[in-house]
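Question (not urgent): is this output format expected?
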Amino acid sequence: MIRKVRTILAAVLFVLITLLFLDFTGTLHHWLSWLAQIQFLPAVMALNVIVVVALLMLTLLFGRIYCSIICPLGIFQDILARLRRKKNKYSYSKEVIWLRYPVLAIFIFAGIAGCGSLFQLLAPYSSYGRIATMIFQPLWKMGNNVLAVLAERADSYAFYSVDTWMRSMPVFIIAATTLVLLVVLAWRGGRTYCNTICPVGTILSFFARFSWFKIRFNVDKCKNCSLCSKNCKAACIDYKTHSIDYTRCVVCGNCMDQCKFGALEYTIKSGITSKANKSVKTNATSPIDASKRSFLLASALVSTAAMAQKKEKLMDGGLAEIEDKVAPERQTPLTPPGSLSFQNLATRCTGCQLCVSECPNQVLRPSSDLMHLMQPTMSYEHGYCRPECTRCSEVCPAGAIQAIDKEEKTAIQIGHAVWIKKNCVPITDGVECGNCARHCPSGAIEMVPLDENDEESPMVPAINEAACIGCGACEYVCPSRPFSAIYVEGHEVHKKI
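Got this back:
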């Protein structure tokens, strides 16, 4: 029963959090963003004391069920391990102390020292977020585009095509490498990654050894058949000594399900029942009671299906081939409204890529800076940051991008526009333009004559930096190729205007 309840809960949570990363319509985050907020590391970074305490109490009560029910990377390992159909494929192995605890020490040091790339590389939730955003979401979009083509031929608009492009090659390589590593380790050893590399698993293991509910041996019933050890993905059961390493056990229930003699029980009583101690009763508390409580949680996790939302399709207005834009070299990176400053984002971001996957305007992408490699940065080659959109601040679980409303966003200055005279088409091509002024939502740009004393002087943009919010509309709509004649330079500390 425990295994079934655990599988149901894990499957529901895994599907929902994966859909949260895959969703490009902007609808699911209203119902599912809480799934990111209950992840351990984002809750720590957001100083969400309620969630952190709840997860620790959950571990003290039931063991490391966070790793097998809530953590998407842990559940993903179970899925990969299950693909290998070989029976009785595992065996007991001792804890890899020489790797497990040094990795945790490196993780903590990287967080304190501000080495964001190394910190995020080891974070389990962030690792799965990169895989889902950089690998799964593009495949999901491609499948959607195929359906859009088929629907269009059938005169249906149930689907619409969306752009699919490479946001960051270095982060894609990191995600692909992590995926290959997970596949190999899970295929060969089940929970090897979870119990040797994952720092969150190591942290929770300190509490799991004191958990109230544990899987325990009933020695009177045990026949030493070794099926429990051969089916333990965490390799933590030594059937010869009737001992279980609770620091690695994730309470998956496989051992109990495979035991033919009922020698394993999920109980709250301590000690090992043996033939030498007949005074201890063997009818331990049934695990079904705890399972019923867990099953009530499962019913609360069922959410509505994703709804499609129509998205305006951009047209270039002609058949001429348009050269792609090249991102300018900004002296200061642009960070999303709500991040407060570049330093705040670098300190609290876990690099999970949820804001990148949820951005409807194609503005956010992982940074290429080595020290902040997987943190979000902004650029305007594929869109601009619309003043009415606050989705990244709504989904960030770590507090790196704080929640803001639409009115507040229009008053946040994340950067200012800079005009590049040599690229402006009224000067280079001798034609009228004014796109930047027409599309500026804050009215910070107006067209003025380049030479006030010449009546035939071309009209060029003049920027009011005090009114500019750095949304990038001017940079995005600028027709100059490959470099825009106007671009946004970031501010290290955001201002309110």
